Target: C2 domain-containing protein
Amino acid sequence: MSKEHGTLKVTIVEGRHLKDEDIVGKNDAYVEVYLDKDYKQRTKTIRNSNNPKWDEKFTFNLKRDHDDLHLHVYDDDTVGKDSIGSAKIDLRKHDFTKGAYDEWVKLPALLGLRSKGEIHVIIEHHT
Model:
């Protein structure tokens, strides 16, 4: 993928079993998605759900050094935002000539012992 350009169409479909360790109860979750930190896009906030359905599409222009798609899930709090978890998808590991990337991506806990939930992501590459 590193030499190709084109566009990446990313669909953040839904989340399941999202956990914020600090909060008892449900999350007000949203996802930040980006290839580099200078251009982040985000979903809308879904209130009171640990299994939110976003079904939102984002388009990114691919540059030569864009090898990873970053996902960061937050709980939207009245005083700011709490991180629920994050993950990165190595775009070089998927063969987009065989079709879209369509996976549940785990949000690993810091020590890797428990998952903080999963995000269903679909990625299409267009040259």
